[in-house]
Specification:
Elements lengths: L1 E7 L5 H10 L6 E16 L7 E17 L2 E9 L5 E6 L4 E12 L3 E8 L4 E8 L4
Antiparallel strand pairs: 1-6, 2-3, 2-5, 2-6, 3-4, 4-5, 7-8
């Protein structure tokens, strides 16, 4: 595994920046190891929902996990508001960094992740393949 740090700045779109960053890497598979920071706007899609819900507040990133591939990401986030109440769901585009997002990302050179439509779920799901490194 190759481990790399990434810091995002105020106003950056957390999901779009992660996807763009992964698209610039030679590796074809990645995962989030650690994430800390804050958001001013979280776009979350809750379980079973088809649309994201916008949450505008000073939010601390409590947890962020998921997989990264050159053709997309699957990311779940939990954020806490000023009262400490935690809410989480699927991280959608439009989630904006408030002060910082400090990320540690693992790249997996021996693997290839792709997103493919799964007829059973109706969603672009993870396809995992060994990568030929010859």
């Amino acid at each position: 595994m190759k481990v790399l740090p990434l810091r995002l700045r105020p106003g950056d779109d957390l999901r779009r920046e992660l996807e763009a960053w992964m698209g610039q890497q030679q590796e074809q598979a990645g995962c989030l190891i650690s994430a800390i920071g804050s958001l001013s706007l979280a776009q979350l899609r809750f379980a079973g929902a088809t649309q994201a819900k916008a949450i505008r507040s000073d939010l601390e990133i409590v947890s962020l996990s998921g997989t990264l591939s050159p053709d997309g990401a699957h990311l779940h986030i939990a954020v806490a508001g000023s009262s400490g109440t935690v809410i989480g769901g699927h991280l959608c585009a439009g989630s904006l960094v408030r002060t910082t997002a400090e990320l540690v990302i693992g790249l997996l050179p021996e693997w290839q992740f792709r997103r493919e439509l799964d007829p059973a779920t109706g969603h672009a799901e993870l396809r995992i393949s060994p990568r030929d490194l010859r």
